[in-house]
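Sequence in, structure out. Go.
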Amino acid sequence: MMFPMKDNIARLQAMMQEAKHVVALTGAGISTLAGIPDFRGPKGLYQKPGAERIFDIDWFRRDPSIYYEACRDMIYGLDNHSPGPVHTVLARLEQLGRLKAVITQNIDLLHQKAGSRKVIEVHGTPALHHCIGCGREATYDQICALLKDATVARCEACGAAYKPDITFFGEMLPEGALEAAIVQARRADLLLVLGTSLTVYPVASLPNETARAGGKIVIVNAQPTPLDGLAQFRLPDLAAFAESVSSWYDE
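Output:
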């Protein structure tokens, strides 16, 4: 049965008040509200010519400029982007003890910028980079400093390119992060799925872990997802979700 959106908002409020272990699973949709393009949308990064090369590990080894040119603003221009309303409300919920963890597919660090501390980055992170030649480590800030005078961040020791600790196609997901995400999904008595199409595996299988463990799922996404049938309901508007939740916990 379909319920009006205001009714589902009221149901969500009651569910969040009753839940003991709320977890959020976030995707690119929440960052589009912060002005960062998504990947698979009509104007997304993957619509550009040659986009399949951007996050391909073999292409990175051949020509790292493909990655750095495509991601200069999206990843290394974060000083130009503030967290969106969903980032902000999730950080607030964590501070209040109402949210136990954020599992994110995103690689833009905006959850951390908003103030979230328990963030599981299942597709890796640009917070650290490693030289593909000698393995030397560099922080995000160090890479941004290098990119002020260069198109590719290169190792000062050997001259090879620095690669972010983001999972590229052809690489395995960070094992520890995926294991931590599965643990949180199973512990969740309420999983908020926010701004993800749930089409990229293995992350898209996490709501199944929640459902099998007896937890409830609410999906907030503009478009239907393959797992809508698992959810108590789906809300279509991320901004309205953030505004509503913020109003419940403002003091």
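Check: The two ends are 35 Å apart (CA to CA). Residues 41 and 47 are 8 Å apart (CA to CA).
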